[in-house]
Specification:
two-stranded antiparallel sheet; 18% strand; alpha+beta; Glutaredoxin
Length: 240
């Protein structure tokens, strides 16, 4: 009996071991009874697309048209070979309120220029050239006709010209008188409203006109003509 009992225990142990082996195999084989571990798929590296900031479109700010680019009437320029009587500039007044008379400058070469005292660039540049003419040809007279009567009153012009050379004269007048004078010389001008503290500016043609001692209109000079060129023409005129 002992032999039989000894034989049975190993068989049972082997049988139990076999069952355990089958269970273990089932657990590792992905059987339906097992807990499946989800497979994680690595996210592929995606190269970062650089973000390009759009360049803002800024509308261009219109710049004021330089007054020197305005057209001049067809009657000009005059030439030394084609003199004509100079328009007399009637109904204009001097800074002291007296009537202006172009005939007062008879016998002297005279330069006529239309502009305004608040001009930021063209007028100061032209006046600078006129002062250069005075140095080389001191007998020359110059007349500055304002196209801005609203601000360039006789009282204002008196202060503005206080330290100017004696042969530099500034005149003004009513809007109608200034318009007629400008038309006679083929000068164009217009008021331009702005957002500046000044409130407005004046766009105007910027020619300088040469009149001889006999009152004849001889030449017109475009903006930017150097003083030396004007002096060279004045030197050809007969002495007054």
């Amino acid at each position: 009996m002992s032999y039989t009992g000894a034989t049975v225990r190993p068989i049972r142990q082997l049988a139990l071991l076999g069952v355990l082996t089958l269970v273990a195999a089932a657990c590792t084989s992905g059987d339906s009874g097992s807990v499946a571990t989800p497979k994680l798929t690595a996210t592929p590296d995606v190269a970062a697309t650089p973000v390009v900031a759009a360049t803002p479109v800024v509308p261009a700010t219109p710049e004021p048209i330089p007054s020197a680019t305005l057209p001049v009437a067809a009657v000009l320029p005059a030439t030394l070979g084609d003199p004509r009587p100079a328009p007399p500039l009637v109904d204009l007044v001097n800074p002291d309120g007296s009537a202006f008379d172009l005939a007062d400058f008879a016998g002297s070469p005279t330069l006529i220029f239309f502009g305004y005292t608040h001009c930021p660039d063209v007028c100061p540049a032209t006046i600078g050239e006129l002062f250069g003419v005075f140095k080389a040809a001191p007998e020359t007279q110059a007349v500055f006709v304002s196209v801005d009567p609203e601000r360039d009153t006789p009282e204002f012009l008196a202060k503005w010209t206080e330290y100017m050379p004696e042969n530099f004269h500034a005149v003004t007048g009513s809007p109608g008188a200034i318009r007629r004078a400008a038309d006679d010389y083929g000068v164009k001008y217009a008021r331009v409203e702005t957002t500046s503290t000044a409130g407005y500016t004046m766009s105007h043609s910027a020619d300088v006109f040469l009149i001889d001692g006999d009152g004849q209109l001889l030449l017109s000079y475009p903006f930017g003509t150097p003083a030396a060129d004007i002096v060279a023409d004045i030197s050809t005129l007969p002495a007054g």
